[in-house]
Amino acid sequence: MKKIATIFPDVWILEPKIFQDSRGFFYESYSKKKMESIGLFYDFIQDNHSKSVKNTVRGLHFQLSPGQVKLVRCTKGEIWDLIVDIRPESKTFKKWMGINLTETNFKQILIPVGFAHGFAVLSEWAEVEYKVTNYYDPKLERGIQWDDPAFGIDWKVHKPILSERDLSNPSLQTFLQQNK
Question: Model-level pTM greater than 0.90?
Fold first, then answer.
């Protein structure tokens, strides 16, 4: 497994070793032993799976403390995966990055606590799977306005399809003021 640095010190792109031939492919999508061999020590305890149609935008989501570290991959189709640093004390506060995750590039992104996460579906439909380090707790689930001008994110979709929840998320500034 290859660990690739990003603009954020604790966010990593992971590329597994792929074995391909005329029959198809095989790879280990997760190995605790291999993760630890590249310096990533996490106890993933739950897997999540979503399916979405083209132009769907999901996010920007995160969890209050203790939060969830996420290991995200796209198993069908293509997504533009986005993360935003929402840690006010961080040198990279309000910065964002995006990465294309596809069923053919096999890339995964490791997202630590303190980042909001979202994605836009670029293919006709996409399936996303991700591991998390804590169980889902609806009382800890939060979101930030997907198109908050504080970030200036390019979502790569022109007519986004959003849930009611994502349409009603507060701006980052409002969230921070409400949670002082």
Answer: yes
